[in-house]
Amino acid sequence: MSSLDDNLVAIALACCLKVKTRKRKIWSKHWLRKRQKYSHVNLMKELALEKDDWFNYMQMDHDTYLELLSQVSPLIEKKDTCMREAISPHERLSATLRFLATGRTYSDLKFTTIISQPSLSAIIPETCAAIYKCLGPKYLKFPSTQHEWEEIAKEFERVWNFPHCVGAVDGKHVKIVPPPESGSFYYNYKGFHSMVLMGIANAKYEFILCDFGINGRISDGGVINRTTFYDKLCKGHLNLPQENKIEGSEKVLPYVFIGNEAFAMRTDFLTPFSQKDLSYERRIFNYRLSRARRIIENVFGILVSRFRIFQTAINLLPRNTKNVVLACCALHNFLRAKCIRYSIPDESDEQAEDNMSQVEQSLAGLQRGTMRNTPNAAKKVRDTFMNYFNNEGKVAWQDNV
Length: 401
Description:
Order of helices and strands: HHHHHHHHHEEEHHEEEEHHHEH
Oligomer: single chain
Low-confidence stretches: none
Structural class: alpha/beta
Distance between the termini: 89 Å
Shape: elongated
């Protein structure tokens, strides 16, 4: 090694030795060491005796919480060390659920959980990922067989009088605090930063698909084009049933998804007629489609009311934001299946409009698409549905609406 190299090494070592490291004043704050005494888990022991209060606090009943805890515990349990006692799965899950239910910041949540802010910033995303990993495969399962699609279609026809419908599709902008140096990457047409949540719902207010993570700057009409779902739909890989006759009619129709004007219409994806020059028959079709499609709007409404994290701008890294949002979607389906008190919205048309208005305040909808050249085959399918709704598929109250 040359003398010049020796000098450079010496200078580098000298610089390293001169760097002053920040000395920690205390290992842990005194009140944080009293977690067993002051933590909200002590309150939860008392709330377990009061069913209504427990539900209001955790957004689920006690038995449902215990079942969820048993499923996620193996993924979030930590071992005690010689330095400190590990935070239990119960404390980790309850803190995470309170974060989702209230939208409180880590710096605020630490005072009720008695868990430090740095620990919460690691615990909550990790627990959300565990929730989605445990619940997703069972409660967010995307249909893969023709029989599963047919069961969804039967439910739409029975409850919402829309035959051959296999899902209501919509997307929402979830507000976020943009990560550093992201510029306008997440900036959307509404004037705030967001990531887009695409959802498909069945007739029972349950997600059958959630796709989250597209940056808000992408044109709303093109959001769905970037999803795996739409790619498979265009390639015919969803294994949808073959078109057949509607029960009680001679009309042969395909199985379709339904959405609003933000999406391009296809033979397997129906959207409403333009509001310009609507005939009576077209207004009837738009009403019938809207009545079935608002299911997905109501699902988003339940998310907003139950998980108030959606009423804030989520201040996490994008990968952690994805864990949080997908955990909420999986929890929604889990609670719909397990928790009787997990509410569904009022069925009336007036209440539905109120629900949509409340959702829009927290989750902005996708912008309506520009004029498109709709394929004639798709127009023909829509016209056949329109004729069905105005004739043999007519319902008694549609004329009044």
